[in-house]
Amino acid sequence: MNAPATSRDAILLESGTNEVEFIEFFLGDISYGINVSKVQRVLSRASVEVTKVAQAPHATLGMIHIHQKPVMLMDLKAALGVPYDENAVNPDRQLILVTTFNKQTTAFLIDGISKIHRTSWEDFEPLGEKVNGESAGGFSTGTVTLDDNIIIILDLERLMLTYFPSAHRPVKPLDPLEGPLEGRDSVRILYAEDSKMVRNITTDIVRNAGYLQIDAFENGLEAFRHLSMMIEAQDDPSECPYDLVLTDIEMPQMDGLTLCRRIKAELCKKDPPKVIVYSSLINKEMSAKCASVGADAQLAKPDVEQIVALIDQICLKAASA
Length: 321
Hints:
Helix content: 10-25%
CATH architecture of the largest domain: Beta Barrel
Structural class: alpha/beta
Strand content: 25-35%
Largest sheet: 6 strands, mixed
Distance between the termini: 53 Å
Number of helices: 8
CATH class of the largest domain: Mainly Beta
């Protein structure tokens, strides 16, 4: 079974409209969701052969082959800590989600797919009282409620960084003495990222490199509201209080493309900040979307070690021009 047609059509969604398409699937009686853009295809569990891997990490079932290329298969239920009831699962009806993000292709075993939704990021709620972290093994960025059904949105990036750090290029703080330090401490950065793990790693690296003025927020809406209030409090509302906006794409309330478009078109029209989109979804089509909303550069996760060099290139060269 190939990826649903809507996954191919997802690139047709207009940029910066705060819309998203996501697949709702289920593990037992719990509903989960991931962005359609991450799904490469859907396979029947019964149609593939799984090769066991020696000393494989927890929740790894083995390797499958897609177009003669080996792809790791994870039992998503085991990875998230969802209770397993063998009497309630029909292996012949289970499916495999083949995903591509963070420059990696990974397959996840699931119990089935419900439907594909198109909705607004405004409908998503950060993880709160409706669902606790244990329902997704702590790997959730929030929820969305549709037809009275709570759908947990998974943070697959955090999941993979936790289970397979070496495969996803773990990062370490850069030597603060490396690179051109002059001018870094004067650059003001607004950062929006809903994954706490990625947000903390990136913030630490940027600060250790000498970019000390960085304000981080867990979604685009919080970052937008903060910037709006700062501009309103200034004597000169035409001046932007930040030199750079660093943003993820997928975030509850307001996505990164909408954040970029609205900052450049509404808040800082006269002297807009530079914008770097840092996301696991960067590909040819997404790069075009980033450019269409005015982003100055894009960087694919998990290349956190390149963040500092890219900020240097955009901000320090611009300042010296």
